Amino acid sequence: MTLFLSPIRASVRAVWLFSIITAAGALCGSVLSYDATVRPPTPTSFAWFEIWIDTGGLPLSAWQAELMLLTPGGLIVGIEGGDSPAFSEPPYYDPRALRAERAVLASFSTAVQSSLPRGRFRVATVHVEIPAGAKPAAALVLEAAAGPDGVEFEVTASIIPGR
User: Fold this and answer.
1) Which ranges of 1-83 does DSSP label H, i.e. alpha helix?
2) pLDDT in tens, 150-160
């Protein structure tokens, strides 16, 4: 018994086969035309900024500051806590601040007043990636500082760059 394909069935099969071959060719063509040029990375280096607060002898239980990176092409890549046990954990910040040029940092402690830091101490360190050879530069604006009673008071804030 011989099988004969009707002309309609044969044309449907031919169109189907043509579609498969065309799709495979397009896929191979796009893979073969992929631009695999490796571009050398832009040379960078790393630096950090220590954030220091001087309370003048009063206990500090909360602070908030904005750090703006002024080095063109620089990005914030990490944030760590300070020296005092009350502020040893990294301050709170928006995670989108990482890989950006600005971050609002804030921290608070519910420790008893006798264990809160007083005087001058480091509250945070911000790590940055900058173009190689660039000088690290940043600005700091202290937005708030308060004691254990929640009342704001004047403090002095400063940043110290490092490499």
Assistant:
1) 7-32
2) 999 999 999 99
User: Are 158 and 141 spatial neighbours (Cβ–Cβ below 8 Å)?
Assistant: no
Cut 0.90: pTM above it = no
The domain 44-162 having CATH identifier 2.60.40.680: the answer here is: yes
How many Å apart are CA 14 and CA 28, to the nearest integer? Answer: 21
The closest of 135, 136, 156 to 51, measured between CA atoms, is: 156
Enter the tokens of residue 114.
Answer: 């006798």
How far is residue 88's CA from residue 78's CA, in Å, rounded to a whole number? 15
Question: In this structure, what are the phi and psi dihedrals at residue 28, rounded to the nearest 5 degrees?
Answer: -65, -40
The two tokens of residue 91 are: 């301050």
Question: Regarding predicted confidence, which is higher, 32 or 38?
Answer: 38
